[in-house]
Specification:
By secondary structure, the chain is α/β, with parallel strands linked by helices. It is built from 7 helices and 6 strands, in the order αβαββααβαββαα. The protein has a single domain, classed as Roll (CBS-domain). The relative contact order is 0.20.
Length: 140
């Protein structure tokens, strides 16, 4: 059984909820990533921040990226998978919630991120097509 721990990227950098959107955008650029987990000062996961969030929720609304904080963008409880969850659970979670990246949690600790491409490499070809179709039809 292939688990999240087997396919995740473990070199995860959090943006602190207190950091500005401008700082988060600069982190994304430096790391060459399109999403960052938002962590509080307690190191707990508060949500995910995507490049799309920055454009739609900050820039398009005319907000100042130096005044808005990453924690202001985190909404609701983050969707996660467990480090020992198998690829099928990851697949179904992504498809059900229409997300392309999932934080991986071990207990209360963030230990990695599983991206759509990670799942695609771990799943048989027909299942990958189903995932891509589910995510493509999502408006998120």
């Amino acid at each position: 059984m292939t688990t999240a721990r087997d396919i995740m990227s473990s070199d995860v950098t959090c943006v602190r909820s207190s950091q500005t959107i401008l700082e988060a955008a600069r982190m994304m650029a430096a790391l060459d990533v399109g999403a960052l987990p938002i962590c509080g000062e307690d190191n707990r996961l508060h949500g995910m921040l995507t490049d799309r969030d920055i454009v739609v929720k900050v820039l398009a609304e005319g907000k100042d990226p130096m005044a808005v904080h990453a924690g202001d963008i985190a909404q609701g409880r983050p969707i996660t998978v467990g480090a020992d969850d198998d690829a099928e659970i990851i697949f179904s979670t992504m498809a059900r919630h229409g997300v392309r990246r999932l934080p991986v949690i071990d207990g209360h600790d963030l230990v990695g991120i599983v991206a759509q491409a990670d799942v695609a490499r771990a799943m048989p070809a027909p299942r990958v097509g189903e995932l891509l179709e589910a995510l493509s039809s999502s408006s998120r």
